[in-house]
Every structure is written in C-alpha cells, then in structure tokens.
Amino acid sequence: MRRIAAMLGLALLLFTAAPLRGEEAPAGERAFNGLSWTVVRTPPDQRADLPELRRWRNVFLGDVRPFPDRKIPPVFWFEDGGVEFGVVYQSRAAPLVMLIAGTGAAFDTQSNRELARALYAAGLHVVGLASPSHPSFIVNGSSSGVPGRPAEDAADLYRVMQMVLDRIRGRIAIEEVHLAGFSLGALNAAWVAELDRRAGKIGFDKVLLLNPPVSLWNSTELLDAMFDRHVPDSAQGQRELFDRIFAQFARVFSRARESTLEGDFLFNAYEQLEPTDAALETLIALTFRLAAMNMIFASDVVSKAGYMVPVDADLQPTTSLSPFIGPLLAKRFSDYFDGIYLPHIQASEPGFTRERAIAEASLYPLEAFLRGDGRIGMLTNRDELILSPAELAWLADVFGPRAILFETGGHCGNYLRPDVVAAIDAFFRSRP
C-alpha cells in the first residue's frame, strides 16, 4: 500500500490548478496565506541560512527492534529493518533533541529535516523518529498495531527512545536530552513527557511542542471536511481528478531543472500554476487521506482486525494491492476510529465508550501537567489549519508565557524562516 500511495503522493505535491481557477484571485495576486505556507513552506527568499545535513559527514542512520521475535507480514517485506532513526550529530559533546514526526511521517520527512537543520545550527544533536502512525512504526514498534491512543503510543515511543539512546551513547557525547515533536508528533511528545515524569528513565530537560493539535478528533474532522468539499464522491470523479493532478505534475516536472520535489522546485511550481485556495485545500486533504490510507491498511494487517483485509488473507510481496486503493481512499479517520480503533480497545475494556475515546485522544487530559511544568513550551501559528479559534485560545492560555505564537506559517510551513529558527534556538538555550 505504501508503494502505491507514495507514487500518488509525488503527484499530489503539485496542484489541481487548472479546473479550480476562477474561484478567487490567483496566487500571484493575493497574500501568501496559511494554505500556501502549509503546501509550499518557507519561500526561498525568506529562508534562514542553515548548515546542510549529509550522511557520513554529520548524519548517520540506525534501527532498533523492540520486538525482535515479531514476524513481519510478507506484504511489508520492505519494512523488515526495525524502527529506523536518523542522528544529526555535532563533533563535540552537546545536548540532544528527540524529534517525533507528524501524522503518517517517516523519521526523515521534510519537516523533520528542516527542524533538524535548525536544531543542528543551534549546536544540538538530533534524533529523528517516525510517527507511531507511520507503517514502519506500526509494523516494528507498536505494541498493538493500532496507533492513536496517546498513552499507548507514548509507551511505544518511550521504549524506542531508550533503545536508541543506548545504541548511540557510544558514538556521540550527550550532555542532556530534550524532546520535541511537530503536528501529531507534538501531541505524542506531550504524552511522552508526562510518562517520563512518572517513569524517570530518560529525564527530559526541555520539551517543545510544534504546531500541536489539541484534539485529534477535531483536527482530523477539519482535514476530512476539506476532502469532502473538493474530492468527488464517485470513483469516476476521483479518477478524473487524479488524471488532472498527474497531468499538472508531468507538465511542471518536465520543465524543472532539479529532480527533487521540495524546496525551490515546489515553490517554482506554485508560482507557475498559481493554484487557488480551493486547489491548495484539495492537495492538503488528499495528502492527509493518503497518510490515513497507509495507517488503516498497516493497522488492519498487523493487528488482524479483519476490517478491510480478511484475517486469513495471504498478502505476499507480489500481491497486487490495487483492489484496496479505491475503498481506502473513501475511508475517513472516523472509519478507522469506529472500525479498528474502538473495537481493539473494547476487546479488553468492554465499557470503553466512543465519547471517552474522543476525549482521551487530545491534550485536554494533560492540562494540569502542561500548565504546571515549566520545561514545556509550545510554538504554533495564528493561521494554523488544524486548530479551531477556541483551541488556539486554549493553547495560549495553558502555556501562557511559554507559548510562542506567529501570525503566519500555516501548518508546519515556516520552520526555515529566520524568526522561527531564532525562537526554537532561544527556547533550547533558555533554562526552564
């Protein structure tokens, strides 16, 4: 599933501009807004001058196996390498930051790399970790194979973090250990920090939550609503939409001077295609839906939930997964919630309600901890896409002077901007 979704994901980095023009002023005639920041990220002329990260020079990769006797399903043969992580290291003793990726993201996702560059420039070692909702973590690092319950995900991450620290202490000199995460990874970081306060096995010195959701349910509903507004219900309509996306992708990519789909290439594509806000919403919604597709499929197979994949299905490396693509694309997060997540919990906790699950999957249960722990800071943007105005106000109130708020940046889009880099640097240099 990840192989097929990844191919589509490359095309989704471009836009459905042509059929959506005319709904509002084109990109070149309006302000760079929260949607633009989310998709295109920091424009080239607004980026801080940061050091590059290169394997063998200041980066090394590794993996750990929390469950060494676990049999990897054959369909996930490409994940048979344990829980992967990346380390960006200084040439001297330095503090280290454990950095958790966002929804469905790998340890080396673009946001992780951007933040790692900013942290490295601040003189820190960085360990990049995948999200518990990424297929490789579900297959290798999840105790249940069903991500989404914050306390369980925190325990899985905490186990991996301890193993990683044991693995790397002989290679780099670590002065103290910090914790950070972005998007869903920020919510994970809050729960890991609370667990560490009780368990005391790592002892995080400082914790930074970047662009956190307050409620997973509310944030996913906002993203699913974007999908519902712009993506046709019918399979035929979806195929036509994807055909347009691939056509745009081919047109711009064929004219590009570089072969990567990030940085200047993506910004140049944005300027060429002048996508409307509706087109940007379509892209964001589809990208989120692809992450959800990967999570649902991996969780269904690993946990043997029998939700879409029969429990006795013999999925081999050569098995075509095409029959699953259409049905999975139609699945909302609430379908995963009701079809896999709730039944999994209720199997061991029969009285566990849907309402309790929604309330639990949030920062609300940690409010007293977040208010009272001076080690923890929060950074977000006023044009954040995954927060309601009430949730943004709640974060500002809970963190008080430890809340870092920027006017613009969308969802995780401004990590290379000098003022954001400076704020992250200042946070980790400060004393709690």
Task: Briefly say what this structure is.
This protein has 17 helices and 8 strands.
User: How would you sum up the major sheet?
Assistant: 8 strands, mixed
Secondary-structure-derived class: alpha/beta
Helix content: 40-55%
Q: What would the principal axes of the Cα set say about the shape?
A: globular
Rounded to the nearest angstrom, the radius of gyration is 21 Å
Total count of helical runs of at least 4 residues: 17
Instruction: Report the end-to-end length measured between terminal Cα atoms.
Output: 44 Å
Total beta strand runs: 8
Strand content: 5-15%
The residue ranges in which pLDDT falls below 50 over 5 or more consecutive positions are 1-29, 256-263
The order of strands across the largest sheet is: 1-2-4-3-5-6-7-8
Mean pLDDT: 86
H and E string: HHHEEEHEHHEHEHHHHHHHHEHEH
Structure description:
This protein has 432 residues and is α/β, with parallel strands linked by helices. Helix content is 48%, strand content 11%. It contains 17 helices and eight strands. It has an eight-stranded mixed beta sheet with strand order 1-2-4-3-5-6-7-8, with helices on both faces. Strand 3, helix 4 and strand 4 form a beta-alpha-beta unit. Helix 1 crosses helix 9, helix 6 crosses helix 7 and helix 8 crosses helix 11. It starts with a helix and ends with a helix. 44% of the residues are buried. The N terminus is likely disordered.
